[in-house]
Design a protein that fits this description.
Helix content: 25-40%
Number of helices: 3
Largest sheet: 3 strands, antiparallel
Distance between the termini: 100 Å
Structural class: alpha+beta
Order of helices and strands: HEEEHH
Shape: rod-shaped
Radius of gyration: 32 Å
Strand content: 5-15%
Number of strands: 3
Length: about 110
């Protein structure tokens, strides 16, 4: 009977050890790190508030839009997540605003 109790005790201790190890191993599994895609905001040029002044934020609306068919003008601009439209356009000339717009219309 003593032999059976000692063998049973060894089995119980082994099971407890296996269970404890499974928690330890599960906690040490590296979690997958997902990198976030930085969002940007698209604005389209409307030319409504101050016509012909490309660096005026009042002439831009959020979202994509039509570039129109007449004249040289910017179409859309992508503003990075950590900045705003005003900062992006501040101090730039019309030609500089056109240069940062790959979709600008140029006649």
């Amino acid at each position: 009977m003593k032999t059976l109790k000692s063998k049973l005790s060894v089995v119980v201790v082994a099971i407890i050890g296996i269970i404890a190890m499974s928690f330890t191993v599960a906690n040490n599994v590296p979690t997958e790190v997902k990198s976030e895609v930085k969002a940007s905001t698209t604005y389209h040029y409307t030319d409504t508030e101050n016509p012909g002044v490309f660096n005026d934020p009042a002439n831009w609306e959020e979202g994509s839009g039509s570039c129109g068919s007449i004249g040289t003008k910017p179409c859309d601009i992508e503003v990075p997540e950590n900045t705003d439209l005003e900062t992006m356009l501040e101090g730039k000339s019309n030609s500089e605003v056109l240069a940062i717009n790959p979709s600008s219309r140029r006649n």
